């Protein structure tokens, strides 16, 4: 079901969240990302923290994060000694959030293609104790700006298929900007280590999650000065993404 905020919700003393951001070879944008997210978190009246997972970068990302850490009281950096992949970086952040006693983990990427200013929209839904909160580009006023048309079309078609198969009240299943109750994440076992971890997460949460919410966001294109995205539209990507909605539809 789609939940409304503030119904049977959490009060300020109960609610807390960690924003988990994986970083790999992001030396150009690391400082800008931390400044933008930290600025938003400092304005919230609940316990919150920015958790950056440095995933074994081979550029200057680690050095930059080490230099920045003393300047931000709400920043925690976790280091992988070598690159372990996107999925493992998310898990490292989620495990830290659980150990630190946060009630929610909010995942987002480091390139600021999603605006940190949208974080309070997630917080509104957290106050309603919603289990799974997904950003949406394709409903409720969400938008896509500056992204190549072929990428938008592929994403839109993929999400229409995934939504029909998952049969969940979500229109943007592949969106990685999302918040989940830590208690639920602690009860599932994630195996994927690439971007399809986002779909596996929905698949494994489906038997556990009771409430869902959509948060409209505007997705922008990755800045030209950043390294190129490691995401590629290959046949294997579609197989990896759609196998979980298909399993869900078939009751596997």
By oligomeric state, this entry counts as single chain
CATH homologous superfamily - what is it? Spore Coat Polysaccharide Biosynthesis Protein SpsA, Chain A
Helix and strand sequence? EHEHEHEHEEHEHHEEH
How many beta-strand runs? 9
Which consecutive residue ranges, at least 5 long each, have pLDDT under 50? none
Which class best fits the helix and strand makeup? alpha/beta
CATH domain class name: Alpha Beta
Proper CATH architecture: Alpha-Beta Complex
Strand order of the largest sheet: 3-2-1-4-7-5-8
- Report the helical percentage: 25-40%
Total helical segments: 8
Which fold name is given in CATH as the topology? Spore Coat Polysaccharide Biosynthesis Protein SpsA, Chain A
State which percent range the strand residues make up: 15-25%
Question: Number of domains in the coordinates?
Answer: 1
User: What overall geometry do the principal axes of the alpha carbons give?
Assistant: globular
Which whole number gives the mean pLDDT? Answer: 91
- What integer value in Å does the Rg equal? 17 Å
Report on this structure.
The protein is α/β, with parallel strands linked by helices and 252 residues long. It has one domain (16-250): Alpha-Beta Complex (Spore Coat Polysaccharide Biosynthesis Protein SpsA, Chain A), CATH 3.90.550.10. The protein contains eight helices and nine strands. The strands form two sheets. Strands 3-2-1-4-7-5-8 form a seven-stranded mixed beta sheet, with helices on both faces. Strands 6-9 form a two-stranded parallel sheet. Strand 2 (47-55), helix 2 and strand 3 form a beta-alpha-beta unit. Helix 5 (149-166) packs parallel to helix 8 and helix 7 (197-205) runs parallel beside helix 8. The longest helix has 18 residues, at 149-166. The radius of gyration is 17 Å and the shape is globular.
């Amino acid at each position: 079901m789609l939940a409304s905020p503030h119904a049977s919700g959490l009060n300020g003393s109960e609610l807390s969240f960690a924003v988990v951001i994986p970083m790999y070879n992001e030396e150009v944008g690391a400082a800008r990302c931390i400044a933008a997210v930290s600025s938003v978190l400092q304005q919230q009246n609940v316990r919150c923290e920015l958790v950056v997972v440095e995933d074994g970068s081979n550029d200057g990302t680690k050095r930059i994060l080490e230099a920045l850490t003393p300047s931000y009281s709400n920043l925690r950096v976790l280091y992988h000694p070598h690159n372990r992949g996107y999925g493992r970086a998310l898990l490292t952040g989620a495990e830290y959030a659980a150990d630190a006693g946060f009630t929610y983990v909010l995942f987002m990427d480091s390139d600021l293609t999603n605006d940190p200013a949208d974080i309070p929209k997630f917080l509104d839904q957290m106050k309603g104790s919603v289990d799974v909160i997904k950003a949406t580009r394709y409903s409720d006023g969400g938008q896509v700006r500056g992204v190549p048309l072929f990428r938008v079309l592929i994403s839109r078609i993929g999400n229409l298929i995934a939504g029909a198969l998952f049969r969940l009240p979500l229109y943007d299943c592949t969106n990685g900007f999302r918040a989940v109750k830590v208690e639920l994440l602690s009860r599932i076992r994630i195996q994927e280590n690439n971007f399809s971890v986002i779909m596996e997460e929905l698949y494994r949460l489906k038997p556990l999650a009771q409430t869902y919410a959509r948060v409209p966001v505007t997705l922008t294109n990755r800045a030209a000065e950043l390294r190129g995205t490691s995401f590629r539209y290959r046949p294997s990507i579609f197989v990896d993404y759609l196998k979980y909605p298909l399993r869900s539809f078939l009751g596997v």
